[in-house]
Protein backbone atom coordinates (compact mmCIF):
# COMPACT_ATOMS: atom_id res chain seq x y z
CA UNK A 1 0.00 0.00 0.00
CA UNK A 2 1.23 3.53 -0.83
CA UNK A 3 0.16 7.16 -0.42
CA UNK A 4 -1.03 9.09 -3.47
CA UNK A 5 -1.79 12.80 -3.83
CA UNK A 6 -3.74 14.21 -6.77
CA UNK A 7 -4.31 17.95 -6.58
CA UNK A 8 -4.58 21.39 -8.11
CA UNK A 9 -3.33 24.64 -6.61
CA UNK A 10 -2.25 28.21 -7.30
CA UNK A 11 1.10 26.75 -8.38
CA UNK A 12 -0.46 24.69 -11.18
CA UNK A 13 -3.54 26.60 -12.33
CA UNK A 14 -4.83 30.16 -12.79
CA UNK A 15 -7.55 31.51 -10.51
CA UNK A 16 -10.21 30.95 -13.18
CA UNK A 17 -9.52 27.20 -13.14
CA UNK A 18 -9.24 27.02 -9.34
CA UNK A 19 -12.67 28.59 -9.13
CA UNK A 20 -14.16 25.65 -10.96
CA UNK A 21 -12.95 23.10 -8.42
CA UNK A 22 -13.53 25.21 -5.28
CA UNK A 23 -15.50 23.33 -2.62
CA UNK A 24 -17.88 24.27 0.14
CA UNK A 25 -18.23 22.03 3.22
CA UNK A 26 -20.74 19.72 1.53
CA UNK A 27 -18.52 19.52 -1.54
CA UNK A 28 -15.53 18.45 0.54
CA UNK A 29 -17.59 15.72 2.22
CA UNK A 30 -18.76 14.42 -1.15
CA UNK A 31 -15.27 14.45 -2.65
CA UNK A 32 -13.88 12.47 0.30
CA UNK A 33 -16.73 9.95 0.01
CA UNK A 34 -16.27 9.65 -3.76
CA UNK A 35 -12.51 9.20 -3.37
CA UNK A 36 -12.72 6.43 -0.79
CA UNK A 37 -15.32 4.68 -2.95
CA UNK A 38 -12.82 4.28 -5.80
CA UNK A 39 -11.81 0.67 -6.38
CA UNK A 40 -8.10 0.96 -5.56
CA UNK A 41 -8.45 3.38 -2.63
CA UNK A 42 -8.55 2.17 0.98
CA UNK A 43 -8.26 5.53 2.79
CA UNK A 44 -8.83 9.12 1.69
CA UNK A 45 -9.23 12.72 2.80
CA UNK A 46 -9.09 16.17 1.20
CA UNK A 47 -7.26 19.43 1.95
CA UNK A 48 -9.41 22.23 0.55
CA UNK A 49 -8.42 25.91 0.80
CA UNK A 50 -8.95 29.07 -1.22
CA UNK A 51 -5.97 28.16 -3.40
CA UNK A 52 -5.77 24.35 -3.42
CA UNK A 53 -7.80 21.15 -3.56
CA UNK A 54 -5.78 18.01 -2.86
CA UNK A 55 -6.97 14.42 -2.49
CA UNK A 56 -4.77 12.26 -0.23
CA UNK A 57 -5.31 8.52 -0.53
CA UNK A 58 -3.84 5.22 0.56
CA UNK A 59 -3.95 3.04 -2.55
CA UNK A 60 -3.03 -0.46 -3.66
CA UNK A 61 -2.51 0.45 -7.33
CA UNK A 62 -0.91 3.58 -8.78
CA UNK A 63 -2.27 3.85 -12.30
CA UNK A 64 -5.89 3.00 -11.66
CA UNK A 65 -5.96 5.29 -8.62
CA UNK A 66 -4.47 8.27 -10.48
CA UNK A 67 -7.09 7.90 -13.19
CA UNK A 68 -9.97 7.64 -10.72
CA UNK A 69 -8.94 10.56 -8.50
CA UNK A 70 -8.06 12.79 -11.46
CA UNK A 71 -11.48 12.07 -12.93
CA UNK A 72 -13.14 13.34 -9.72
CA UNK A 73 -11.39 16.71 -10.02
CA UNK A 74 -12.09 16.95 -13.75
CA UNK A 75 -15.78 16.24 -13.16
CA UNK A 76 -15.88 18.84 -10.38
CA UNK A 77 -14.55 21.46 -12.79
CA UNK A 78 -17.12 20.57 -15.45
CA UNK A 79 -14.42 20.78 -18.10
CA UNK A 80 -12.81 18.33 -20.49
CA UNK A 81 -9.96 16.13 -19.34
CA UNK A 82 -7.75 17.66 -22.03
CA UNK A 83 -8.26 21.11 -20.53
CA UNK A 84 -7.92 20.11 -16.86
CA UNK A 85 -5.23 17.43 -16.73
CA UNK A 86 -2.32 19.80 -17.48
CA UNK A 87 -3.23 21.69 -14.29
CA UNK A 88 -3.31 18.62 -12.01
CA UNK A 89 -0.26 17.27 -10.22
CA UNK A 90 0.51 13.87 -8.75
CA UNK A 91 2.81 12.87 -5.88
CA UNK A 92 3.31 9.22 -4.99
CA UNK A 93 4.61 7.44 -1.90
CA UNK A 94 7.85 9.16 -0.75
CA UNK A 95 6.98 12.20 -2.89
CA UNK A 96 3.50 12.36 -1.33
CA UNK A 97 4.99 12.38 2.17
CA UNK A 98 7.41 15.18 1.24
CA UNK A 99 4.62 17.22 -0.38
CA UNK A 100 2.29 17.03 2.63
CA UNK A 101 5.10 18.03 5.00
CA UNK A 102 5.92 21.02 2.78
CA UNK A 103 2.24 22.01 2.68
CA UNK A 104 1.88 21.82 6.47
CA UNK A 105 5.08 23.82 6.95
CA UNK A 106 3.72 26.61 4.75
CA UNK A 107 6.32 26.21 2.01
CA UNK A 108 3.72 25.54 -0.69
CA UNK A 109 1.35 28.37 0.28
CA UNK A 110 0.66 31.45 -1.81
CA UNK A 111 1.83 33.45 1.21
CA UNK A 112 4.89 31.48 2.31
CA UNK A 113 4.69 30.45 5.94
CA UNK A 114 1.06 31.48 6.49
CA UNK A 115 -0.46 29.84 9.53
CA UNK A 116 -3.93 28.94 8.27
CA UNK A 117 -2.75 25.92 6.32
CA UNK A 118 -1.88 24.12 9.54
CA UNK A 119 -5.48 24.39 10.70
CA UNK A 120 -6.71 23.32 7.27
CA UNK A 121 -4.47 20.26 7.40
CA UNK A 122 -5.81 19.44 10.84
CA UNK A 123 -9.37 19.84 9.52
CA UNK A 124 -8.66 17.37 6.70
CA UNK A 125 -7.55 14.80 9.26
CA UNK A 126 -10.53 15.49 11.52
CA UNK A 127 -12.99 15.19 8.65
CA UNK A 128 -11.48 11.92 7.47
CA UNK A 129 -11.68 10.52 10.98
CA UNK A 130 -15.28 11.67 11.32
CA UNK A 131 -16.28 10.10 8.00
CA UNK A 132 -14.33 6.93 8.71
CA UNK A 133 -12.28 7.41 5.52
CA UNK A 134 -8.94 7.86 7.32
CA UNK A 135 -7.30 4.72 8.67
CA UNK A 136 -3.89 3.94 10.20
CA UNK A 137 -1.80 5.01 7.19
CA UNK A 138 -3.20 8.52 6.66
CA UNK A 139 -3.70 9.07 10.38
CA UNK A 140 0.00 8.51 11.06
CA UNK A 141 1.02 10.60 8.04
CA UNK A 142 -1.19 13.59 8.90
CA UNK A 143 -0.32 13.52 12.60
CA UNK A 144 3.35 13.69 11.67
CA UNK A 145 2.69 16.47 9.13
CA UNK A 146 1.04 18.54 11.85
CA UNK A 147 4.08 18.02 14.08
CA UNK A 148 6.35 19.10 11.23
CA UNK A 149 4.27 22.24 10.69
CA UNK A 150 4.39 23.12 14.38
CA UNK A 151 8.13 22.45 14.60
CA UNK A 152 8.81 24.64 11.55
CA UNK A 153 7.01 27.57 13.13
CA UNK A 154 8.46 27.00 16.61
CA UNK A 155 12.08 26.81 15.44
CA UNK A 156 12.02 29.48 12.71
CA UNK A 157 10.33 32.75 11.87
CA UNK A 158 8.72 31.32 8.73
CA UNK A 159 5.29 32.61 9.72
CA UNK A 160 6.62 36.19 9.72
CA UNK A 161 8.63 36.28 6.49
CA UNK A 162 5.74 36.86 4.12
CA UNK A 163 2.53 38.86 4.47
CA UNK A 164 -0.84 37.18 4.72
CA UNK A 165 -3.21 37.47 1.78
CA UNK A 166 -5.03 40.23 3.65
CA UNK A 167 -1.85 42.16 4.47
CA UNK A 168 -0.54 41.82 0.93
CA UNK A 169 -3.85 43.09 -0.49
CA UNK A 170 -3.92 46.06 1.88
CA UNK A 171 -0.37 46.95 0.87
CA UNK A 172 -1.50 47.01 -2.76
CA UNK A 173 -4.58 49.07 -1.91
CA UNK A 174 -2.51 51.85 -0.31
CA UNK A 175 -1.56 53.26 -3.72
CA UNK A 176 -5.28 53.77 -4.39
CA UNK A 177 -6.90 54.56 -1.06
CA UNK A 178 -3.97 55.33 1.23
CA UNK A 179 -3.13 53.83 4.66
CA UNK A 180 -5.75 51.68 6.34
CA UNK A 181 -5.76 53.98 9.36
CA UNK A 182 -7.52 56.62 7.26
CA UNK A 183 -10.03 54.23 5.71
CA UNK A 184 -13.57 53.07 6.32
CA UNK A 185 -13.43 49.30 5.77
CA UNK A 186 -16.26 46.88 4.99
CA UNK A 187 -15.65 43.16 5.54
CA UNK A 188 -18.05 40.90 3.64
CA UNK A 189 -18.15 37.43 5.21
CA UNK A 190 -17.74 35.99 8.70
CA UNK A 191 -15.52 32.92 8.26
CA UNK A 192 -11.87 32.36 9.12
CA UNK A 193 -10.55 34.66 6.38
CA UNK A 194 -13.04 37.37 7.34
CA UNK A 195 -11.87 37.03 10.94
CA UNK A 196 -8.26 37.49 9.83
CA UNK A 197 -9.24 40.52 7.75
CA UNK A 198 -11.15 42.08 10.65
CA UNK A 199 -8.27 41.47 13.04
CA UNK A 200 -5.77 42.96 10.57
CA UNK A 201 -7.63 46.18 9.78
CA UNK A 202 -8.52 46.65 13.45
CA UNK A 203 -4.86 46.24 14.44
CA UNK A 204 -3.88 48.76 11.77
CA UNK A 205 -6.33 51.30 13.23
CA UNK A 206 -8.92 51.55 10.45
CA UNK A 207 -11.15 54.60 10.86
CA UNK A 208 -14.25 52.39 10.88
CA UNK A 209 -14.86 48.69 10.34
CA UNK A 210 -18.17 47.07 9.39
CA UNK A 211 -18.89 43.35 9.06
CA UNK A 212 -21.60 42.19 6.64
CA UNK A 213 -22.75 38.58 6.36
CA UNK A 214 -25.82 36.68 5.19
CA UNK A 215 -26.10 35.08 8.64
CA UNK A 216 -26.62 37.98 11.03
CA UNK A 217 -25.58 36.03 14.16
CA UNK A 218 -22.16 35.20 12.71
CA UNK A 219 -21.61 38.82 11.69
CA UNK A 220 -22.58 39.96 15.18
CA UNK A 221 -20.22 37.49 16.87
CA UNK A 222 -17.29 38.59 14.72
CA UNK A 223 -18.10 42.27 15.19
CA UNK A 224 -18.41 41.86 18.96
CA UNK A 225 -15.09 39.99 19.15
CA UNK A 226 -13.21 42.94 17.62
CA UNK A 227 -15.39 45.79 18.82
CA UNK A 228 -16.60 46.80 15.36
CA UNK A 229 -19.99 47.27 13.70
CA UNK A 230 -22.24 44.50 12.35
CA UNK A 231 -24.37 45.39 9.31
CA UNK A 232 -27.38 43.48 7.99
CA UNK A 233 -26.78 41.82 4.62
CA UNK A 234 -29.70 43.73 3.12
CA UNK A 235 -27.78 46.94 3.84
CA UNK A 236 -24.69 45.87 1.91
CA UNK A 237 -25.28 48.47 -0.87
CA UNK A 238 -25.40 51.26 1.74
CA UNK A 239 -22.19 49.97 3.32
CA UNK A 240 -20.50 49.89 -0.09
CA UNK A 241 -21.53 53.46 -0.80
CA UNK A 242 -19.72 54.68 2.30
CA UNK A 243 -16.59 52.51 2.07
CA UNK A 244 -12.98 53.26 1.16
CA UNK A 245 -11.89 49.61 1.24
CA UNK A 246 -14.05 46.50 0.76
CA UNK A 247 -12.67 43.04 1.60
CA UNK A 248 -14.90 40.20 0.43
CA UNK A 249 -14.31 36.57 1.45
CA UNK A 250 -17.63 34.77 1.80
CA UNK A 251 -17.05 31.47 0.00
CA UNK A 252 -20.41 31.85 -1.78
CA UNK A 253 -20.96 29.96 -5.03
CA UNK A 254 -21.93 33.10 -6.98
CA UNK A 255 -21.03 36.79 -7.10
CA UNK A 256 -21.91 38.70 -3.94
CA UNK A 257 -20.91 42.11 -5.27
CA UNK A 258 -21.97 42.76 -8.84
CA UNK A 259 -21.09 45.68 -11.10
CA UNK A 260 -24.73 46.73 -11.13
CA UNK A 261 -24.92 46.73 -7.32
CA UNK A 262 -21.71 48.73 -6.87
CA UNK A 263 -22.58 51.18 -9.63
CA UNK A 264 -25.99 51.85 -8.06
CA UNK A 265 -24.44 52.20 -4.59
CA UNK A 266 -21.83 54.73 -5.76
CA UNK A 267 -24.01 56.72 -8.13
CA UNK A 268 -21.97 59.67 -9.41
CA UNK A 269 -19.30 59.18 -6.73
CA UNK A 270 -15.84 58.74 -8.24
CA UNK A 271 -13.92 58.58 -4.96
CA UNK A 272 -11.16 56.00 -4.85
CA UNK A 273 -12.40 52.60 -3.71
CA UNK A 274 -10.30 49.47 -3.25
CA UNK A 275 -12.27 46.25 -3.64
CA UNK A 276 -10.31 43.23 -2.39
CA UNK A 277 -11.66 39.83 -3.41
CA UNK A 278 -9.88 36.95 -1.64
CA UNK A 279 -12.67 34.42 -2.08
CA UNK A 280 -12.68 31.35 -4.28
CA UNK A 281 -14.99 31.16 -6.15
CA UNK A 282 -14.73 34.92 -6.60
CA UNK A 283 -17.19 37.11 -4.72
CA UNK A 284 -16.84 40.16 -6.97
CA UNK A 285 -17.65 40.49 -10.66
CA UNK A 286 -14.48 41.33 -12.57
CA UNK A 287 -16.32 44.11 -14.42
CA UNK A 288 -16.46 46.30 -11.26
CA UNK A 289 -12.90 47.32 -12.15
CA UNK A 290 -14.32 49.36 -15.04
CA UNK A 291 -16.25 51.66 -12.67
CA UNK A 292 -14.73 55.13 -12.15
CA UNK A 293 -12.39 55.24 -9.15
CA UNK A 294 -12.66 51.52 -8.39
CA UNK A 295 -9.62 49.26 -8.15
CA UNK A 296 -10.20 45.52 -7.94
CA UNK A 297 -7.52 43.39 -6.25
CA UNK A 298 -8.05 39.63 -6.49
CA UNK A 299 -6.14 36.40 -5.90
CA UNK A 300 -4.45 36.58 -9.29
CA UNK A 301 -2.93 39.96 -8.36
CA UNK A 302 -1.89 38.65 -4.95
CA UNK A 303 -0.29 35.51 -6.37
CA UNK A 304 2.07 37.66 -8.42
CA UNK A 305 2.91 39.94 -5.50
CA UNK A 306 3.47 37.12 -3.03
CA UNK A 307 5.54 35.12 -5.51
CA UNK A 308 8.07 37.95 -5.48
CA UNK A 309 8.39 37.96 -1.68
CA UNK A 310 11.86 36.84 -0.65
CA UNK A 311 11.84 34.76 2.54
CA UNK A 312 15.57 34.02 2.48
CA UNK A 313 17.15 32.09 5.31
CA UNK A 314 13.92 31.20 7.08
CA UNK A 315 12.70 29.22 4.08
CA UNK A 316 16.04 27.46 3.74
CA UNK A 317 15.89 26.47 7.41
CA UNK A 318 12.32 25.17 7.08
CA UNK A 319 13.33 23.20 4.00
CA UNK A 320 16.12 21.64 6.06
CA UNK A 321 13.65 20.74 8.83
CA UNK A 322 11.19 19.27 6.34
CA UNK A 323 13.93 17.24 4.65
CA UNK A 324 15.08 15.91 8.02
CA UNK A 325 11.54 15.00 9.02
CA UNK A 326 10.80 13.31 5.68
CA UNK A 327 13.93 11.16 6.00
CA UNK A 328 13.07 10.20 9.59
CA UNK A 329 9.47 9.36 8.71
CA UNK A 330 10.38 7.25 5.69
CA UNK A 331 13.08 5.42 7.66
CA UNK A 332 10.60 4.59 10.42
CA UNK A 333 7.96 3.56 7.90
CA UNK A 334 10.29 1.24 6.02
CA UNK A 335 11.52 -0.35 9.22
CA UNK A 336 7.92 -0.78 10.34
CA UNK A 337 7.14 -2.48 7.03
CA UNK A 338 9.59 -5.33 7.81
CA UNK A 339 8.40 -5.73 11.39
CA UNK A 340 5.69 -8.32 10.55
CA UNK A 341 8.27 -10.50 8.79
CA UNK A 342 10.70 -10.22 11.72
CA UNK A 343 7.96 -11.09 14.21
CA UNK A 344 6.85 -14.04 12.08
CA UNK A 345 10.46 -15.27 11.82
CA UNK A 346 10.95 -15.13 15.58
CA UNK A 347 7.61 -16.85 16.13
CA UNK A 348 8.67 -19.64 13.79
CA UNK A 349 11.98 -20.00 15.68
CA UNK A 350 10.13 -20.17 18.99
CA UNK A 351 7.86 -22.89 17.59
CA UNK A 352 10.87 -24.92 16.42
CA UNK A 353 12.59 -24.59 19.82
CA UNK A 354 9.42 -25.59 21.68
CA UNK A 355 8.94 -28.61 19.40
CA UNK A 356 12.51 -29.79 19.90
CA UNK A 357 12.31 -29.38 23.69
CA UNK A 358 9.08 -31.43 23.71
CA UNK A 359 10.86 -34.09 21.65
CA UNK A 360 13.72 -34.06 24.16
CA UNK A 361 11.27 -34.59 27.02
CA UNK A 362 9.89 -37.62 25.21
CA UNK A 363 13.32 -39.11 24.56
CA UNK A 364 14.78 -38.29 27.98
CA UNK A 365 11.84 -38.45 30.42
CA UNK A 366 14.17 -38.83 33.39
CA UNK A 367 15.98 -35.54 32.81
CA UNK A 368 15.90 -33.45 35.98
CA UNK A 369 14.28 -30.00 36.00
CA UNK A 370 17.55 -28.04 36.41
CA UNK A 371 19.18 -29.74 33.40
CA UNK A 372 16.03 -29.32 31.33
CA UNK A 373 15.97 -25.57 32.13
CA UNK A 374 19.64 -25.14 31.25
CA UNK A 375 19.11 -26.90 27.92
CA UNK A 376 16.08 -24.68 27.21
CA UNK A 377 18.11 -21.53 27.87
CA UNK A 378 20.98 -22.76 25.73
CA UNK A 379 18.79 -23.62 22.77
CA UNK A 380 16.99 -20.25 23.01
CA UNK A 381 20.32 -18.41 23.10
CA UNK A 382 21.48 -20.27 20.00
CA UNK A 383 18.25 -19.38 18.17
CA UNK A 384 18.49 -15.73 19.24
CA UNK A 385 22.10 -15.44 18.08
CA UNK A 386 21.34 -17.05 14.74
CA UNK A 387 18.42 -14.67 14.13
CA UNK A 388 20.02 -11.51 15.49
CA UNK A 389 22.10 -10.58 12.44
CA UNK A 390 19.41 -11.30 9.82
CA UNK A 391 16.80 -9.24 11.69
CA UNK A 392 19.15 -6.31 12.26
CA UNK A 393 20.32 -6.35 8.66
CA UNK A 394 16.82 -6.58 7.18
CA UNK A 395 15.85 -3.41 9.08
CA UNK A 396 18.96 -1.62 7.82
CA UNK A 397 18.48 -2.81 4.25
CA UNK A 398 14.84 -1.73 4.29
CA UNK A 399 16.13 1.86 3.97
CA UNK A 400 18.30 1.08 0.95
CA UNK A 401 17.17 2.26 -2.46
CA UNK A 402 16.33 -0.36 -5.04
CA UNK A 403 13.60 -2.72 -6.07
CA UNK A 404 14.63 -5.65 -3.84
CA UNK A 405 12.27 -6.40 -0.96
CA UNK A 406 14.57 -7.77 1.71
CA UNK A 407 11.63 -8.63 3.94
CA UNK A 408 10.15 -10.71 1.13
CA UNK A 409 13.54 -12.37 0.55
CA UNK A 410 13.80 -13.22 4.24
CA UNK A 411 10.30 -14.69 4.25
CA UNK A 412 11.14 -16.77 1.18
CA UNK A 413 14.47 -18.02 2.55
CA UNK A 414 12.90 -19.18 5.81
CA UNK A 415 9.69 -20.41 4.14
CA UNK A 416 7.52 -18.23 6.37
CA UNK A 417 3.77 -18.69 6.13
CA UNK A 418 2.39 -15.57 4.32
CA UNK A 419 -0.72 -15.67 6.52
CA UNK A 420 1.47 -15.61 9.62
CA UNK A 421 3.24 -12.49 8.31
CA UNK A 422 0.02 -10.66 7.36
CA UNK A 423 -1.55 -11.49 10.72
CA UNK A 424 1.05 -9.42 12.56
CA UNK A 425 -0.29 -5.96 13.40
CA UNK A 426 1.81 -3.31 11.72
CA UNK A 427 3.12 -0.88 14.36
CA UNK A 428 2.36 2.82 13.95
CA UNK A 429 5.10 5.27 13.07
CA UNK A 430 5.43 7.95 15.74
Give a concise summary.
Helices cover 56% and strands 13% of the residues.
Characteristics of this structure?
alpha/beta; 17 helices; four-stranded antiparallel β-sheet; 10 strands
3D architecture notes:
By secondary structure, the chain is α/β, with parallel strands linked by helices. It is 56% helix and 13% strand. It has 17 helices and ten strands. The protein has helices spanning 15-21, 25-36, 62-77, 81-84, 94-105, 116-131, 136-155, 165-177, 192-203, 216-226, 236-241, 259-266, 299-307, 313-363, 369-397, 406-413, 418-422; strands at 2-9, 41-49, 52-59, 89-92, 184-188, 208-213, 229-232, 245-248, 273-277, 294-298. The strands form two sheets. It has a six-stranded parallel sheet with strand order 7-6-5-8-9-10. Strand 6, helix 10 (216-226) and strand 7 form a beta-alpha-beta unit. The radius of gyration is 29 Å and the shape is elongated. It starts with a strand and ends in an 8-residue tail after the last helix. Mean pLDDT is 86; it is low at 423-430.
Distance linking N and C termini: 18 Å
Total strands: the figure is 10
Figure out the total of helices. Answer: 17
Mean pLDDT: 86
C-alpha geometry: elongated
Sheet bearing the most strands, described?
Answer: 6 strands, parallel
| Secondary-structure-derived class | alpha/beta
Strand content: 5-15%
Order of helices and strands: EHHEEHHEHHHHEHEHEHEHEEHHHHH
Which stretches are low in confidence, meaning pLDDT under 50 for 5 or more residues running?
Answer: 423-430
Amino acid sequence: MSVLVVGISHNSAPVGILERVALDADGVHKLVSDAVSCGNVTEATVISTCNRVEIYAEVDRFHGSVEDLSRLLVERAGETAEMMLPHLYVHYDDGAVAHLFQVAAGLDSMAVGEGQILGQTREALRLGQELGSVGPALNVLFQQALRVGKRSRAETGIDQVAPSLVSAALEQSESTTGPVAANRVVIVGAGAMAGLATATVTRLGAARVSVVNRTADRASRLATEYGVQAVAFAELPLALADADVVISCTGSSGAVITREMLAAARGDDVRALSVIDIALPRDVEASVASLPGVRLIDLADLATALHDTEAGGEVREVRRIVGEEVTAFLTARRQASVAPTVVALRSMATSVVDAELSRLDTRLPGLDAAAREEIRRTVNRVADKLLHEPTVRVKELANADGAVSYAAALAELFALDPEAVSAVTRPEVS
